[in-house]
Amino acid sequence: MNPEIQAYNNHQSSIDQDICNLLAKTFDSELTESESKIWHAHPVWFLEGNPIVGYSKQKAGLRLMFWSGASFEEEKLNVVGKKFKDASIFYTSAEQINLNDLKNWLKKSREIQWDYKNIVKRKGVLEKIN
Q1: Least C-beta-crowded within 10 Å: which of 38, 64, 97, 105?
Q2: How far apart are CA 40 and CA 73, in angstroms?
């Protein structure tokens, strides 16, 4: 695991650490070609420089966010962004994470991408990559 991400996880409560560590380990094993780093103060995984998935601590719990998740058409990813194509789910314990769902979403995150990497160059306009 990326040492910066491990440090982020270690600063969470023990319950949130369990969630973070399970998510990070799953991302690392399923997205082997990805780059991971702390981006805007949160762990994020990238494919060819494009943000794919990440998580952050919020009042409602640990938020798992897929940057292109609104296009996955997944009912469980029910917190949809208003401005972009992101979608999220919140967890309050590691037991709530369905690994089959998570792996399916990670597969979709590889197949369905909006081009966030070039959003500034396109003056806020998102284009679908694949």
Answers
A1: 38
A2: 26
Quick check: helix, strand or coil at residue 111? helix
Domains and CATH numbers, the chain: 3-111 (3.90.1150.200)
Long-range contacts of residues 9-14, Cβ cutoff 8 Å, at least 24 apart: 9/43, 12/57, 12/62
Burial 60-75 (b: 16+ CB within 10 A, else e): ebbbbbbbbbbbbebe
pLDDT in tens, 25-57: 999 999 999 999 999 999 999 998 889 999 999
Query: For residue 31, what are its two tokens?
Result: 């997205």
Specify whether the backbone of 110 is left (phi greater than 0), alpha (psi in -120 to 50) or beta. alpha
| Residue 94: Cβ within 10 Å count | 16
**In this predicted structure, what is the pLDDT of residue 33?**
95
